[in-house]
Amino acid sequence: MKYISTRSGAPDLDFEGVLLTGLARDGGLYVPENWPQFSKDDIKNLRGLTYSEVAVKVIQPFVRDVIPDFDLKALVKDTYQQFNHSATAPIKQLGPNQWLTELFHGPTLAFKDYPLQLVGRLFDYILKKRKNKITIIGATSGDTGSAAIEACKDKKSIDVFIIHPKNRVSEVQRRQMTTVKSSNIHNIALDGTFDDCQDMVKDLFADQVFRDKHNLSAVNSINWARIMAQIVYYFWTAVSLGAPDRKFIYAVPTGNFGNVYAGYAAKKMGLPIDRFIIGSNENNILTRFFAPDNIKGRMSMSPVVKTLSPSMDIQVSSNFERLLFDSLDRDGKAVANALEAFRKNQTIEFGEQSWSEMSKIFEGISLSDEETKASIMNIYNSTGELLDPHSVIGLMAGRKAKNINDNIIVSLATAHPAKFPDTVNKATSIYPNLPAHLSDLFDRDENFTELPNNIDTIRDYINKKISERSA
Ligand SMILES: *Cc1c(COP(=O)(O)O)cnc(C)c1O
Question: Stretch 17-45: mean pLDDT, rounded?
Answer without folding.
Answer: 95
